[in-house]
Here is the input.
Amino acid sequence: MRAFSYERARTPQEAAAVVAARPGAKFIAGGTNLLDLMKLEIETPVHLVDVQDTGLDRIEETRDGGLRIGTLVSNTALASDRRVRRDYGVLTRAIVAGASGQLRNKATTGGNLLQRTRCPYFYDTDQACNKREPGSGCSAIGGFTRQLGVVGVSDACIATHPSDMAVAMRVLDATVETVTPQGETRRLPVADLHRLPGETPHLETNLQPGEMITAVVLPRPIGGRQVYRKVRDRSSYAFALVSVAAVVQPDGSGRAAFGGVAPKPWRVEAAEAAMPSGAKAVASRVFEGAKTTDQNGFKITLAERTLAGVLAEARA
Amino acid sequence: MGSAIAKGRIRAIDTQAARSSPGVLGVVTAENAGELEKGQYNTARLLGGPDIQHYHQAIAVVVAETFEQARAAAARLKVSYVRARGRFDLEAQRETATEAKDVKDAETGDFDAAFADAPVKLDETYHTPDQSHAMMEPHASIATWNGDELFVWTSNQMITWGKGDLARTLGVPAEKVRISSPYIGGGFGGKLFLRADVLLAALAAREVGRPVKVALPRPFMGNNTTHRPATIQRIRIGANRDGKILAIGHDNWSGDLPGGGPENGTAQTKLFYASDAIRTRVRLAELDLPEGNAMRAPGEAPGLMALEIAMDEMAEKLGIDPVQFRIMNDTQVDPMNPEKRFSKRQFVQCLTQGAERFGWSRRAAPGATRDGRWLVGLGMAGGYRGSPTMKSGARVRLTPEGRIIVESDMTDIGTGSYTIMAQTAAETMGVPLDRVEMRLGDSAFPSAAGSGGQWGANSSTSGTYAACVKLREAVAQKLGYDPGGAVFSDGRVRDGRRSATLASAARDGEIVAEDAIEFGDFTQQYEYGTFAAHFVEAAVDMYTGQTKIRRMLAVCSAGRILNPTTARSQVIGAMTMGVGGALMEELVVDKRLGFFVNHDLAGYEVPVHADIPHQEVVFLEEADELSSPMKAKGVGELGLCGVGAAVANAIHNATGVRIREYPVTLDKYLDRLPELA
Here is the structure.
């Protein structure tokens, strides 16, 4: 671990201003991902601004019947909130499918969205990685790719976004609220938070340097049967091979987003018109243009079959 | 600091930036480490450079005031490498493989003719992957020099081997080296040998002139330490239509660094089932992957992962129940050497009791049982592991307070050595268990069997027993009793009508006795084995292909069980490891770059609690009079042998799909699951 300096900010505005002003500075909240990355020198911040005293740890009802989730709300608190369990079941189910109880106690809402890929080549600093070291190449392509992305990927990077929570946020059309270094509030759909890698896989979000997530806003509840199904090689504490977050209405219409397949939670709204016709019709649109390897091509079949299982469960 | 390349050499290491980093006390590389030999039990050198033999071979150690400073400075070492082409793909090297040095081809009868004439035949090839021990505690050591004497606190299963190889590697006399390893956070064979942490701690402590601690970071574990090598196994079985086996052929390929050894999956095949024609062949290819070496049930575990699927397939071809098929082909003698009997073999009893308890008769045809979205199946496999013994010594002290102190360099890797050796001493000396103090894992104590090959329990308790018998003689003599007739119980010694407290014998000072058990040539006369039948119920999600294990049962025949609690713990741990091997564990080789890619616990998945259902373990009532004074054997490796195949066979029964390549992950059969409506 590289030596670093540390301070605690009292307001999000103050935190944003400090991080923006100081090259190599980073926010830290729960630290469940950042500290691991620092120990391996994948992340080497020179200064950490701890935002845990900024008071953004409440879940409030919004005027239009939704929920504003403070960025510091822990994954455990969010998943167990009465309103979330009642009205946004897919979110609770997604969160408890991720990590472990201990990690969820510490991990925060904003931090979960901003966690980094678990591509094994990203984690091995002896290997080339465009995400870790821009321009160094990608050692994953042509190597061990079974866990890696099949859609939205590029020739520079095929890493996936590992979050379960974000997949549910995406299917619920959540909005991310931020504070900019100038102290202004900005809103962007969670769909627009993460970027696709293209030629610049090290640029993972559309946040400006120093811009800090302050909340995630869920719109008014949309009802329906809400299911999150995560497929993995063991029953707990493993990242998804494929996951499906779905909201299915009594008339058969619905929404579906996919995890474990792309550099961001993957949802193709245009495909959802086919929900009443079944999983095959939806999946063929969702994975149009997919770029698979001999090791991860199964994810397309798996995603379709998993969605079929989810639809069967939702309609049972 | 580990090598960033798999094969080649170091052109230069620039240590300047590291040396001037905050807190740094010293840097050791091959350049300033002095002359180093290679340990007898090591294949690759533990400190590489300038030549590199494998990925993450240690090439430098940086010592600093704090661990974080040392790690930060190590990252500032600038190493320039010259890469060489390596051989990393076992399948591609298969044709170059040659007969392994210590494993000769074996044949009884005429396999080719018997197989050709057999009316029912099976000829299939199976794959097992490289596996990591993935023990909870990474390798770690603290070393300190006092003049020319070296003391190391470490985590090691075999104190005598570790001490010997440390002295040999450093080129110092063995009597100047002492190592201590009283507690071990898991080993599974990964700590049988001297490893880099010990050597680097010793070299670094000498360099900086103070005690140094070296702990391997988890991401080094996959490539810096040893692993269980992958195998390719071709198995041929021929039988008559009634199910009698006429021919068994087992060919096994694995790879290792030059000078290394094979992962031999054929050892059980020579002895498990009756057949007039048996042939085994083991071929070893050279690979430039990290060093392969022993992992729990080395050879036996992957061998039975293959053989016991083949037996299931053969039973299916014959239309015979797989339990019955095994019973029909049981043997009480070594099939390749029929005058040699098994000392005790209750495999058939394991099978019949297991089938009864598990409800095996309810097993349906493959793919025929559904429970909601789950395809449900039952599977079973036979388990067989030899029961070797090793010379094992102990020293026993009787204190004036009447306490018994047992000293031995035996180790406890979570197996319960402390408990069973203390029980042995308490029982033999006739004192309650809380009067016995155990001191283990120190090379200053008498050399014991150590923990490996499931020989530890039987050998070390026999050694304790031998030392206690000697102590009883000394006590009897001291009291003036007849050593042959004295009875030790309830803290007293009795000889006819005379009686004294045990403590009184040591009134004038401690009585010390030391002895060892040595095993003669009786293994020439009898075959010693432990046996099990494993039963598994598995459910496969018809949509996603995910497998859930629902029930597991092991029925074991393993001699006298020294302690039912610790023995059961060994077996359920092994069953868990078997599920890991069946469903998820694989060190994935990057065949271009020559390393195990998933070299941490996020990438190398082992089972979590949610993967493991209720496990039932039954030990048959048994005492093997021919095995040792304890009439015991081993169970630690038996518990793993056959489990993987039982899982794979259960998945086949659930889905109708046969997978011959471990781990049995859903991507291998998803497209063969039933079509969805």
